[in-house]
Automatic annotation (TrEMBL):
Species in which this protein is naturally found: Filibacter tadaridae
Name of the protein described by the UniProt record: Histidine ammonia-lyase
Coiled-coil region(s): none
MF annotations from Gene Ontology: histidine ammonia-lyase activity
Gene, per the UniProt record: hutH
Family: Belongs to the PAL/histidase family.
Organism lineage string: Bacteria, Bacillati, Bacillota, Bacilli, Bacillales
Amino acid sequence: MIELTGSTLTLEQIRRVCYEMETIQIARSSMEKVRSSRAAVERIVKEKKEVYGINTGFGKFSDVTIAEEDVAPLQLNLIRSHACGVGEPFPEIVSRAMILLRLNALLKGFSGVRPIVVETLAELVNKQVHPVIPQQGSLGASGDLAPLSHLALVLVGEGEVFDKGQICAAGEVLTREEIEPIVLQAKEGLALINGTQAMTAMGVINYLEAEKIAYQSEWISAMTLEGLEGIIDAFHPAIQEVRGYPQQIEVAARMRGLLQDSQLTTRQGEKRVQDAYSLRCIPQVHGATWQALDYVKEKLEIEANAATDNPLIFDDGETVISGGNFHGQPIAFAMDFMKIAVAELANISERRIERLVNPQLSDLPPFLSPEPGLQSGAMIMQYAAASLVSENKTLAHPASVDSIPSSANQEDHVSMGTIGSRHASMIIQNVRNVLAIECICALQAVEFRGIDKMASRTREKCVQLRSFVPSITEDRIFSQDIKQISEWLKVNS
């Protein structure tokens, strides 16, 4: 069980909650902060102080004063009117991460919600009740308003949830799970939707998947190196150390470890003086991707423990400040950076695929075909990889460079960070498929060279993969092989 404090949540803990369904509990000290913050909101309402989001309208309507008897209906109206997301829903695992992150933010004690709100969010996590949240419709500033409104709908017994692979009315599932819908009070609707939790939740899941494929790209490229009898000298520690990037040094060290007892790699001058960049520069290119991923991880862990709604309540309600912590620019930049960095793993992988299949670039059978001419072998797999790489180039265009004013120009600069996080997810899946294609080609190449000569670690992977993807002895529907390996990569290391 993981204890939430509002300040100490790590990506590893999020992984355990989202992938392993670990349960959570709320720290007692954090619940005290929630109670104190709520008492401040209730004093503001009672004393009829005019404070944005508590007894005023929203956005351009911030200058409209709301009567005390309408403060509660104001919050429900907000949730219903803002729940206008469109498109396919976020994956269920992202929905779960979104609840967790929104709960953690509220536990910081600056948002003014009642304890029942955070307790109900915790129930959703622990009973695995995950809202159906459309992916499109957020500008990534003023928070992820549309996506988080769909999350908030479930708290009041409206909207839809995932239920054993089906989509069901939230009210039915809450009744079955004995979760009592809440009636929103002053500020609570706004506190639930003013935040960056959609882009951050998607970003965290993206990071966890990107981290895995970055490691996988190393052992897959190591098999390719063996299939092409690549030169191991390029990974010598001295080369890496004189440049000085820790990530480059680490990639080269892992490559040496993967290939340490291989009889298929060569030394400088044995067969050629140097390899092409797609082999020789693996530490430099993959290492640069790791640099970007390290940056992304740092930003996601900060955001996962941030107060991102508006206004925020300080000094027991004596200080209530309207600011801009809901603006998603830090995560927007991180997601755009991730897109470019992860896409590069596919760019260089596709070039290695070309070297494996092109008879002008190696002494392997043309297109790794068992009968060149009669059998096309891996010819069109390279086409598919090239198509995915090209698609990634359009998806990698930064979303954060765009902004469209909203709310009658009151909200005149936005981040588009949620678009960036969605595109990053698409790129990651494309990269995984490209790596699956490289894997198929590398397996065929090392078989041609002799599996018994492989390094022990790459041979172990070869045996695992050959248990469900057979050698190419004749042409078949390779789409199925790509899918099988891609799905295997998604759940294995």
